[in-house]
Amino acid sequence: MQTWSLWYQFAFHPNRIWQKADQEARRRLDNSLRQVRRNIRHRFRVLHRQGIHATILSESVLWEDQHTLWIAFDIPNAVNLHTAFETIVDALRTAIGTVEDNELKRYALDFWWPMMVIVPLIGRKSLDRTAWRISMRVFLWRNAFSEDDWWNYVRHPIPHQAWEQLGLSVWEIPRMEIATQLQSAVAELLFQVAHICDLERLPDVIDEQDRIIIQDYVKDLSADISETFQRVLDMMTEMANYFNDLPEEEKERRPSLLEAMQVLVEMHANVMPCESYDGELKLSLANMQGWGQRLETAIAQAEMIRLYWAADVLGLPEEN
Q1: Cα(24)–Cα(11) distance, integer angstroms
Q2: How far is CA 137 from CA 30, 84, 111, 302, in A?
Q3: Lowest model confidence (mean pLDDT) among 83-87, 280-284, 288-292
Q4: Which of 220, 143, 227, 161 has its CA nearest to residue 188?
Q5: How far is C-alpha 240 from the geometric centre of its chain's CA atoms?
Q6: Sheet bearing 115-122, strands edge to edge
Q7: CA distance 31 to 25
Q8: Distance (Å, rounded) from C-alpha 17 to C-alpha 10?
Q9: Are 117 and 71 in contact (CB under 8 A)?
Q10: Taking 80 as the threshold, does the pLDDT of residue 285 lie above it?
């Protein structure tokens, strides 16, 4: 850090003359970072009054060998996870943006915290050991979440070593797993269908040998899609059966579960390969495009189901 501080001052301010250049260079860098930290903590204190408990979790733990600023936020209800995340992003953007926009701030943040990781917690624990990983540059140079920046909304598994160093805990309640597994299975199904759709980009003119190879490949993919599709249906059925077996009065006492079931019903049409599905999966390049588009909607619905399901599970007495 000392070397970098001196390099920066020499590279951008070569005409400055200091008595103790190494100390002054480091002081200026520390002041810039300190101001950003101060602003972040100030914005987080404001969020505390809104029921979002956010904190700077670590600056020393690395994400895959990269310096990282770890942010954690804790909320009591899983249903509000995405709303809280967007509130955190706005707070961070404001905190960073209100520090004087000069070269030292930009270079310091890009060097010292090139990565921002935001860890969501529900009741002080993680639902699935994942976090949002965002380059600091999107906060420094442009709107971090424009319509074209969908990848910033994708959560990533936290590396095992980082997880251990952070000392975080995860909810380990068996009944929560099915909603997470459903979400993963729908994502896998979308990936498989999208992969077949990509075959439409192949040139129109191919020889007979290539055609045979492609047909065999599609046949293998179809078997994988059928297996994944069946897993999705089985998990949806299991969740619906759990709900249907409950007494009516208990259903009424569990609004988050009711919401999960409502979204599950809506999602059913989107995971079906076609309106005329009769129990036998018949795949062709012609109907893949529409199915892929519906599965994109199903992905968002599966996430809603997961959060409503988690809110219901965490709201039950501990022995359940």
Answers
A1: 15
A2: 19, 22, 10, 31
A3: 280-284
A4: 227
A5: 26
A6: 53-58, 68-75, 115-122, 130-135, 155-157
A7: 10
A8: 10
A9: yes
A10: no
Which of left, alpha, beta for 159 (phi over 0: left; psi -120 to 50: alpha)? beta
d(CA 213, CA 210): 5
pTM: 0.81
Run of H or E including 167: none
Whole-number mean pLDDT of the chain? 82
C-beta neighbour count of 141 within 10 angstroms: 11
How many residues make up the chain in this entry?
320
In this structure, what token pair is assigned to residue 217? 């490949």
As a whole number of angstroms, the distance between CA 98 and CA 238 comes to 50
Alpha-carbon span 37 to 40, nearest angstrom: 5
CA proximity to 313, closest of 265, 247, 242: 242
3-state secondary structure of 8: helix
Chain segment 26-67, per-residue pLDDT in tens: 566 667 788 888 999 999 999 999 999 999 999 999 998 889
Burial class from Cβ neighbours inside 10 Å (0-12, 13-18, 19+) for residue 65 reads: exposed
Instruction: Work out the angle between the directed axes of helices 177-198 and 285-314 (0-180°, nearest 10).
Output: 160
Nearest to 133 by CA among 122, 121, 144, 148: 144
**CB neighbours (10 Å) of residue 288?**
22
Find the mean pLDDT for residues 295-313: 96
Specify the amino acid at residue 33.
L
Give 98's contacts (C-beta < 8 A, 6+ positions apart).
Answer: 39
How far is C-alpha 91 from the chain's CA centre? 18
